[in-house]
Amino acid sequence: MQHSLSELLEIAKDAACVAGKEVLDIYDKGTFEAYEKDDESPVTSADYKANDIIMEALGRLTPDIPVMSEELPQLPLAQRSKWSKYWLIDPIDGTQEFIARSGDFAVNIALIENNEPVLGVIYWPPGETLYFASKGQGAYKRCSVETKKITVRQFEVPSEDVVMIAISRRQSRERVFSRMSDKRSYQTLPAGSCSLKACLIAEGKADVFMRLGVTGEWDTGASQCIINEAGGKILAATFDELSYNKRDSVENPDFVVLGDQRVNWQSIINYK
């Protein structure tokens, strides 16, 4: 059965919320086991539970669409390259935050079509907040019963306004500021997972986020669609485009999430 993009968006939203509510229940009860992957990154039994829930829903409702998940073995590019469309999921983005009990973790589901994110859903369970977007239809935030359109913050004077940097609580501020031009004034907004920091930019609460370190394509797929539709961009820290399902490796380069596109971000961020 062929589904429209709007129908696929509803499927992704429902799957993310169901998985997120189960994850929140596990989080509140503290009934999870933590492990270490081969690459030394953390994973928990809650990640696997969320993955199972999402995989079941997508497999049942869209059996013709393949799925790439952080918690599944990655197929070789020779097989993946045949996919014109596929789901890209991160069952829990911010597993370290989940373990640390900061509350800053999220469920991410994206749809990639012709190597481009065309649908993105990010659900923040502790805040019962859903961010979502589909190509050409804008970006939205649903909290409780209210749904509103979101956009990046528009600077009054793009060359002079104070820049709000979303920054991880566990990231070295010195390392981030060493890559920012000293010609601007900055404030920082601490946050948790990559996707939630991207959402802060999409809804205009922050202006830029630089991610330095290992991430996978599932860490940016949903965020990229939401940011694009909110009027911003996600790019490699070198200001090249990110790629999806084009390389043997599914690791991202260091990347930046950018708000107001009238700002000359390349004069602000000195990535070396």
Task: Describe this protein's structure.
This protein is α+β, with helices and mostly antiparallel strands. The protein folds into two domains: 5-150, Fructose-1,6-Bisphosphatase, subunit A, domain 1 (Fructose-1,6-Bisphosphatase, Chain A, domain 1, 2-Layer Sandwich); 163-268, D-Maltodextrin-Binding Protein, domain 2. The chain has helices at residues 5-29, 45-61, 77-80, 95-100, 173-177, 194-202, 221-230, 265-268, and strands at residues 34-36, 42-44, 67-69, 85-93, 106-113, 116-124, 129-134, 139-143, 146-150, 163-168, 186-191, 208-211, 215-216, 233-236, 251-252, 255-258. The chain has a seven-stranded mixed beta sheet with strand order 3-4-5-6-7-8-9, sandwiched between helices. A three-stranded antiparallel beta sheet has the order 12-16-14, with helices on one face. A two-stranded antiparallel ribbon has the order 1-2. α6 (194-202) runs parallel beside α7. The protein is globular and about 55 Å long. The model has no long low-confidence stretch (mean pLDDT 94).
Helix and strand arrangement:
Elements: H1 5-29, E1 34-36, E2 42-44, H2 45-61, E3 67-69, H3 77-80, E4 85-93, H4 95-100, E5 106-113, E6 116-124, E7 129-134, E8 139-143, E9 146-150, E10 163-168, H5 173-177, E11 186-191, H6 194-202, E12 208-211, E13 215-216, H7 221-230, E14 233-236, E15 251-252, E16 255-258, H8 265-268
Parallel strand pairs: 3-4, 10-11
Antiparallel strand pairs: 1-2, 4-5, 5-6, 6-7, 7-8, 8-9, 12-16, 13-15, 14-16
